[in-house]
Amino acid sequence: MKQKFNAAAVQMVSGCDLAANLARADQLLAEAAGKGAQLAVLPEYFCLMGAHETAKVAVREAYGEGPIQQALSDMARKHGMWLLGGTVPLAADNPEKVLNTSLLYNPQGEVVSRYDKIHLFGFTGQGESYRESNTISAGQTPVKAETPLADIALSICYDLRFPELYRLLAPFDLLIMSAAFTATTGEAHWEPLLRARAIENQCYLLASAQGGLHQNGRRTHGHSMIIDPWGRILAELEQGEGVIVAEIDPDLIQSVRSSLPALEHRVIR
Q1: Of 76, 166, 193, 247, which residue is most buried, by most CB within 10 angstroms?
Q2: E-strand spans in the chain?
Q3: Fold (CATH) for 5-264
Q4: Hey, is 61 helix, strand or coil?
């Protein structure tokens, strides 16, 4: 039986300077560790929100090497915590694109799980236009990381809109969502989608977001949240940089699933 533990969502407003973003992430993780977090999650694009879409291609790294991955390994080891490194731009087969990848590090600084973002965001409206497929190659494989703390479903931003992804991974204790939701789509859909994913999977959900006006002019929604299996918001940070922490309780997961065994009642699989 897994034990209770504290998990942290780190919210950032990352800019165009890679080194500055890494240093700020380290400061916020120190804050999370000081609040007793045994697991911390960084947001999507934590290391770089560049002036142009191609900026992340210029700093792409081969899997297992490079300054971004080394920094994440060092931070996990330094703060003695499990660390989900938001997203890292890893080299793709196409030299003009990257894989948008979440890496999970153990407290010894070792990578124990990798997830390449499957669903690529595209949106045009209200004066905005985004097409991640211009610079990102899609991943292919859903990932659930089995750790001593929890069984964790890994996902990134736009994945949130595709519940079938999580059905492939169920059951799990914790769903991690690293995101950089736009202000426009986030205001309309962020909270209801997060709560729905927690409720339907009867799991905790930890959403770590970008939250504010970035150096490149982009505005992100923020509202990092930790949600319990009943859909209750345990902690939330609306805007700006900071850390929220909440307790993950396996007994509550079991209680919810025992009283309302919806996962067992599934008919269509």
Answers
A1: 76
A2: 5-11, 39-41, 82-84, 88-91, 98-105, 111-116, 122-125, 128-131, 144-146, 151-156, 174-179, 204-209, 224-227, 233-237, 242-248
A3: Nitrilase/N-carbamoyl-D-aminoacid amidohydrolase (3.60.110)
A4: strand
Segment (H or E) for 19: helix 18-34
Helices (H) and strands (E) in the chain, counts: 6, 15
Q: Where are the domains of the chain?
A: 5-264
Residues annotated catalytic, as ranges: 44, 117, 157
Predicted confidence at residue 1, as pLDDT, reads 56
Contact of 172 with 201, CB cutoff 8 Å: yes
Q: Please answer whether residues 196 and 164 qualify as being in contact, where contact means their C-beta atoms are separated by less than 8 angstroms.
A: no
Across the chain, mean pLDDT equals 96
Contact 90, 82 (CB under 8 A): no
Strand order in the sheet with 204-209: 144-146, 151-156, 174-179, 204-209, 224-227, 233-237
CA torsion angle 204 179 109 247 (round to 10):
-30
pLDDT tens per residue across all 269 residues of the chain: 589 999 999 999 999 999 999 999 999 999 999 999 999 999 999 999 999 999 999 999 999 999 999 999 999 999 999 999 999 999 999 999 999 999 999 999 999 999 999 999 988 877 777 889 999 999 999 999 999 999 999 999 999 999 999 999 999 999 999 999 999 999 999 999 999 999 999 999 999 999 999 999 999 999 999 999 999 999 999 999 999 999 999 999 999 999 999 999 999 98
User: Are the C-beta atoms of 140 and 161 separated by less than 8 Å?
Assistant: no
DSSP string, 223-255: -EEEE-TTS-EEEEE-SSSEEEEEEE-HHHHHH
